[in-house]
Amino acid sequence: MKIVIIGASAAGISAAKTIKVAEPDTQIVVISKEDSIHSRCMLHKYLGHERDAKGINFVHENFFAENNITWLKNTTVVDLDTDKKFVRTNDNQAIYFDKLLIATGASYFIPPIPGLREAKNVYGFRDLKDAQLLDSECKTAKNAVVIGAGLVGMDAAVALLERGLKVTVIEMMNGIMGLQLDEKSAEAYQQLFEEHGAEFLLSDKVTSVNIDEAGKGRTIHLASGKSVCADVIVIAAGVRPSFDFVEKSDIATKNAILVGDDLQTNIKGIYAAGDVIGISGIWPNAMKQGKIAAINMLGEKLRYEDRYALKNTTNFYGLTTLSLGNINPKPKESFDVLIREDRNNYQKVVMKNGIILGVIIQGNINSTGFWQYLIKNKIDVSGIDKDVFDLSYADFYKVDSISGEYLYAI
Amino acid sequence: MKRIIIDREKCDGCLNCNVACISAHEEGSNFYTVNLGSVDSETRNFIKFDAKTGYTPIFCRHCDEPECVLSCMSGAMEKDPVTGHVKYDESKCAACYMCVMNCPFGVLKPDNKTRTKVIKCDFCEEKQDGPSCVKACPKQAIEVKEVSR
């Protein structure tokens, strides 16, 4: 059997690995627009000159050769024929398949703000190529503006600060990393970034960008009337699934490629996984989707059930935070919001009727993995007679007597 | 594969497993010289205890379907196809701590000193005679056994 995988990030690579372990004789072709494998979660380490391109590779150096996988790098897919079962590449090759996995990820989005899309010094922070372009700008630029204070924006900011640029971060919400943090935990990070030289313009938004003779965006105007000077602009205002090449085909889409629980599209034998299916934007879920799609392409009938995606860990300047679920409940009064803190730690648990809905653990995140299990499985902890902050896996301890693996006693 | 099999009933919380683990991962250290007060002294196994549940050994299972490996964005966590053990490569790790979040049993933790790496059981793979914690347990509450996978 011949399986073609489009995309070589978390979902695509995870699928290729899974297939090679389960059925090593399967012929695999991986098509990727990049010429190197890299983890986008480590781009800040590349831009900050902590690691080179090799250092942000998340597979073995000779992954494709070792696994006997054909890798078409620097190649994009421009068209898909679902009847004759082939994809057409930008260099006009027709690559036939028995099964296809679409793992093309997502691309950054530049909001339609006057001047922003036209400016030649506006970059996303999504692929190695973006980081390389930013890297060369950093050689001369002094002032960097980051639009969007989500995780990607803060990753970019940390690297630009590392490179010695003056960094201003503009954010519409009133705090940074608004999806992952509450007010208190966000302030802790904001303070750290400020100590390292960053400036924040919160609860504000870009209204226009003035472009100079060289085509570069130089002055950024904000709704508040303020303006900021920029030599380089990083846009981190969200991403959109990338699936242009299926638009002429009969693959069903709705802002993303639509898939069933088995991660198969509406066309039999064609699967999709990762950011392109638009149901979660985080690495562990893309890996799991790639794995499940791969197993299903080999004829099994696994379902993608572990869908929980409201989860993240953050580590900036050595301050670590775990955040899960609904951490800013509204209205506050109808939830139990419990807080425990000391000078190094801030912990918050959001509950309702004994079910934990959200958790923030900032500071010491040792052994906190069990929280996700409790939240995603809606486990009632009201019967456990102890402070909720003292819960651990020990309260749910159970061992499989044959394998010795841990289970949950609930 | 080999796994450390736990008998919770036998554990009396002496923490010899912790000391053995710390010592095993500290160069030149032994039971008598190990400095338990050092910030570098980190155990990879844990005993949780409270009045209700008693002593609970929390040891890395080197799971058949390791969530830490699936969540790793740097390639630092890998399941060894030969031994079945989940190996951790500190030089690759980017300290994002997705693995800490994704281990359903709360086994993993950042290092206390720098928060740049993960503290993870390596099954004392460099030692000829197996995991140091097992050798140090006076109650045989933990034992290495061959399990199928």
From TrEMBL, chain A:
Which parts of the sequence belong to the FAD/NAD(P)-binding domain? 1-290
Q: Which SUPFAM superfamilies match?
A: FAD/NAD(P)-binding domain
UniProt xrefs under InterPro entries: FAD-bd_OxRdtase, FAD/NAD-bd_sf, FAD/NAD-binding_dom, FAD/NAD-linked_Rdtase_dimer_sf, Rubredoxin_C
Write out the transmembrane intervals: none
Q: Does the record's keyword annotation contain Iron-sulfur?
A: no
Residues in NADH-rubredoxin oxidoreductase C-terminal domain copies: 315-379
> What cofactor is this protein dependent on?
FAD
- An example Pfam family from this entry, by short name, is Pyr_redox_2
Give UniProt keywords alphabetically. FAD, Flavoprotein
Q: Which domain of life is it from?
A: Bacteria
> Which protein, by its recorded name, is this?
NAD(P)/FAD-dependent oxidoreductase
Organism for this UniProt entry = Acetobacterium tundrae
Taxonomy-wise, where does this protein's organism fall, top ranks first? Bacteria, Bacillati, Bacillota, Clostridia, Eubacteriales
From TrEMBL, chain B:
Show the Gene3D superfamilies listed in the entry. Answer: 3.30.70.20
Pfam families on file: Fer4_11
Taking every annotated instance into account, which residue ranges of this chain make up the domain 4Fe-4S ferredoxin-type?
2-30, 84-113
Q: Which UniProt keywords apply?
A: 4Fe-4S, Electron transport, Iron, Iron-sulfur, Metal-binding, Repeat, Transport
Gene Ontology MF annotations: 4 iron, 4 sulfur cluster binding; metal ion binding
Q: Which InterPro entries match?
A: 4Fe4S_Fe-S-bd, 4Fe4S_Fe_S_CS, ET_IronSulfur_Cluster-Binding
Q: What is this protein called?
A: 4Fe-4S dicluster domain-containing protein
Organism whose genome encodes this protein: Acetobacterium paludosum
